[in-house]
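Continuing the batch. This is chain 6 of the set; chains 1 through 5 are on the previous pages. Same settings as before, nothing changed between runs. Recording input and output for traceability.
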Amino acid sequence: MINKEKEEGKRRTPKDYSLAFKLQVVDEVEKGHLTWRDSQNKYGIQGHCTVLKWLRKHGSLDWNDKSPMKKKAPPKIYISQLEAKIKRLESEKEILNRAIDIADEMLDTQIRKKYLPLSEEASRQKGPENPSSK
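Output for chain 6:
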């Protein structure tokens, strides 16, 4: 239906698109199946930022970048970038923890102190401390 109207040269207004259609396009873009520009080409949506407006209004992700010229990465790509960053940070954490362990062994220190939370039960189990110190 949309392609027929495009072929006939009829211009569509944003009011011509149903809410269900808008939500379908938004869902496809947010799941990473299409970029917002690709969805315009696929469905013949006129207007250079119509889909971007739908994403801002109906989408669940942050699409508030006002520049339509910047291309947003699809969520799948963004998620994979975040996962790579998590792996890198975890490996850095392991390296730093190992360095602390080596320093503890070599210098015979306790850089990493292990504090146990003292709850009322734990303090009762220990028994009363020196009452004269209170």
